[in-house]
Amino acid sequence: MSKQKYALHWFRRDLRITGNANLRHSWKVSDGHVLGVFCFDSAFLKRSDFSHNRFAFFLKTLTELKKELQAQGGDLLVIDEQPHIAFPELFKQLGLPEVVSYGTDYEPFARSRDENLKSIFESFGVKTHSERDHVIIEPHEVLKEDKSFYQVYSPYFRRWFEKLNTPEVAKRIQDQAVVNQYYDKLTNNKLDSIFKLKWSDFKTMPFRDSLEKFENENNKSVSIPIPEAGFKVAYDRLQEFKGRLSGYSEKRDLPYLDGTSKLSIYQKNGSLVSSQMMSLLGLQNQNTQYVKEIAWREFYYSIMYQRPECEKQAFLPQYVNLKWENDKQKFERWCEGKTGFPIVDAGMRQLNQTGWMHNRVRMIVASFLVKDLLIDWRWGENYFMKMLLDGDLAPNNGGWQWAASTGCDPQPYFRIFNPWLQSEKFDPDCEYIKTYIPELKNYSSKTIHNPEGERGSVYPKPIVQHSEQKIKVIALFKAAKS
Question: Considering 293, 311, 325, 424, which one is annotated as catalytic?
Fold first, then answer.
């Protein structure tokens, strides 16, 4: 066995160096002799909602992380093996590390995995360190006086905002100011050599790095252009958004404008996390719309943590067995963006072509699938996860259950988006619609927003009548409650 002093940081969804408290802990304990490791879990790669496009973006993020680590004297090993197999092999061949650190995760699969790994680490006598990373305030920190969890967003937000202004939580945000200095050094190629160990320093290794192999294999199935990834790109996007932050409340619902932050793809992988965004945008102590959106994200993590069964079923028990029609042909038309409802089709085509969809349009297309086509929300949730580069289980599940009226604090089942009115309100001149449905570019906005509008043979007629479907879906929910 090697006598080399070392620590391991197990990267998962915290793919960055700066402001990574768990990585810093291992760095301090080992006096800089900390190495990064990432394990691909075959169970994850076999999920029904696995996305080759999102995986490609994730691999790009890993590549950028590896470059940054190596530029500072460190290293990252990407292992093609499940962690419960990989770690014991590393310990047996390299000796026991000073500590293994990793960021806390709150989703069902991750929690089960981490409990299993915790037992393995204990059996080897290896110390571990894990604390929050991708949330500012953890689920167990935002509870009612009786220790039950919040099921309604408004009181959750009030309590969350109170916690945000406590000295302990405020410090979590203030500490992220280090990000600015790190960015300057990264941009000017002046990163300090703070790490003192590379994987090549070990004489024997049980695993070879598999990052390039995964990239080569996965790229064969990628169907969209994959954006640049990593901390620097995320930081640049944040700074660009900072200049538009003042207009966020007014412009965030208009899909033809660049009115949202588009930071969710970087949050998903931890290239940039909410505490850093709050710090860099100067949002400490500010009850703004953007802060509320960050809290919505944490609300959904909390719900998934408290009620993990919601990954597979409705949060509200009365709606677990709703009698959906589940017409496969209509579902395919929805997926392809060929329903005859322009705002819906534009959203789906944007998703299919770019791996992203505007948030207001996400709500419209979700409502349409469930309440106009009477299709199980889980079909749509699964499709979103397959296609979205920012696909994230808890927020995606929470958003779909909100739209479907089956989740916590949902849109009431009788409140149903009218796609024609939504179209007219949020894309009045059809700029967004015509971007993704070019066959409508020569038609007037009045014609496009009219369900009876004559569009010739260039675009399909509506596959359902909204007014009729509204009656049917209300009856479906009433039957479930009786």
Answer: 293
